[in-house]
Protein: Nucleotidyltransferase-like protein
Amino acid sequence: MIGELDTTSVRGSLAIRLRDVVQQRWPAEVQAIGVRGSVAHGDDVESSDVNVVVVTYRPKTGPKPTRRKVEGVRVSLAVVTAEDGLGLARVLTPSWPLVADGYLTTLPLHDPHEWFADQREAHLTLLSESRPAEFTRLARHNWALASNAHARAVRLTQWHDTDAAMVLMAKARVHAALVAGLLTRTYFRNEADAVKHTGVAMADMQELDAILNYQAEELAARGRPVDGTLGELFD
Structure:
């Protein structure tokens, strides 16, 4: 075991081997290496990905970001500079419910200067200083995307283009889940986890329409109505 990483599992062992290769090939460029997702949480299964993040000292150094299979296991390799990684952790974005877990739950594989702890602390500080209105504003952004995708899905269904409608419904569900996450300050592992835990995974068009209407009322009650005058567009 290294920390909480199960090195006896296929995915844990592969994460360590990936770390070793990166350190051997880019010893002077890499500041830290960590693993995220289910492997970091310790609940990975046979179908889980290995999500490795490499932190470099300078831009355009170290390995290139990539996604592929390695010996039958899906691997996602993300690369970020130390400065950019801390900067991202200090900013709230509409995708916060999907990215926060990476800031808060990364298992270091190589981190002599405790960069991942600094990133976690930077994000926790951001959350402690953020006002509810900021989360509501971001939720309204996702609501607009969800509503637009839902409306397009309805129109495509009327045109009997059900395949395209299904794609847009999936997009609408994800953004509706992000609205819920932002309004409750809840973050998720991934999109599938988001729609599952917010109860929109199986919502049909009518049910999702009702959910969006409820969210619109909630946003209005929090001072961020989804409709308004032209002058309010920039609010």
Summary: The longest helix spans residues 132-158.
